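Structure ticket #2291
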Amino acid sequence: MVKKTVKTEKEEYSAKELEEQVVSLANAGHSPSKIGLILRDEFGVKNFSEVASKKIQDVLRENELVGDMPEDLLNLIRRSVILSNHLNKNKKDYSAKRGYELTVAKIKKLTKYYSKKNKIPKGWVYTPEQAALLVK
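Resolution: structure written out below.
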């Protein structure tokens, strides 16, 4: 059990209550990392996995609330689209071009890793056009 002090009252949260809270936060549109931050900041849960004996991602998977793409890969794709749009407007920004190249390299490495782990389809390949569609 995790204790949290709210307005001088002590509240205790069971693992089941926290799992229900995770599901409701996911239904509200929060990502797994954002859910962890909310549990820490608003509910005083230092480590969800110590309380519930499973990870937030496992709870989301049980309730079929996990997205198609892993969160870190999707964040990198969003970043590449933003940098690509910036480069289209600012052709001479060479440091942004370097940042875009590094981001695309990270995406390709993660794609290779996740395809081995069967978290994304085997034939999935990063393209800027596909990335722009994913972000929208």
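Closing remark: Helices lie at 15-27, 32-43, 48-52, 56-62, 71-89, 94-116, 128-135.
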